[in-house]
Amino acid sequence: MRVRRVLAATDLSTGAGLAVRRAARLAAVHDARLTVLSVIPPSLAEEHSDFVAGALDDHVAAHAGIPADVVLRTGPVSDTILAEAADLPADLLVLGAHGSRGLAGSRTGPTTENITHASVCPVLVVRTPATDYETVLLAVDDTEPAHRAAQFGVALTPSAVHVLAHVSVVIGEQLLRLRGLDETDIERLREASTAEIRPRIEELAARLDPRPHAVVIGSGTPQRALPELVSHYAADLVVIGSGSSTRFERALLGSVAQSVLRYAPSDVLVVRGGTR
């Protein structure tokens, strides 16, 4: 999987400057073409477009450090960014986290979440300085699209230490408690679920090139467990990938990715199952 075109979207903020720096660093490592995009809402375009154009040039000069195509568009912010990514087409879309605009306790703003949810190409949400990634957590299920997502993450960060992680879900765990199962019975179900999935996750790990340095398989709630694993391994990037073939799986992927986006302290790369 080769990264040929990187698109960084910026609102000229400090957080977006981190995203431009990260996009430029990855573009340089992969010998990819870099485009930096800023979008002016239609209500502001007539009065502020000249000012924003000059500020955008200064912003790119300050943060990119490599040649870049600089693009200024007018339109709805999320839709315009998604359209630009599709038109290029971009192999990677890089955004700032914009945590100050999010919900209480959230590290990610609504525009970033909306774009990440709707994007066809992989989206990298940046909140850390643009040094080389050292430890990458690859969060997967046991599907072929998840393998492709993990491989994209590995290919994007070839020099990092990679930890493959799967958190098994005991479907209806709370309902089982309500029906009288005690914690010992629940734990047995978790162990059985983990034992069943382990061979498939280890087989997925064996097919990655390079192979991950560690494979972690546990049970519990992915929305809670994955941010905890990010902190435990001091990962500076977490990659979320899933096959999401059923409505339930799509909803679960969405909720897990959203939770990691909001609460993980690292950068987050979301790769959909259909990524080329």
UniProtKB/TrEMBL annotation:
Transmembrane segments: none
Domain of life: Bacteria
A molecular function (GO) term: ATP binding
All residue ranges annotated as the UspA domain in the record: 4-127, 133-272
Keywords assigned by UniProt, alphabetized: ATP-binding, Nucleotide-binding
Family to which the UniProt record says this protein belongs: Belongs to the universal stress protein A family.
PANTHER family given in the database record: STRESS RESPONSE PROTEIN NHAX (PTHR46268), UNIVERSAL STRESS PROTEIN RV2623 (PTHR46268:SF27)
Protein name as catalogued: Universal stress protein UspA-like protein
Taxonomic source organism: Saccharomonospora cyanea NA-134
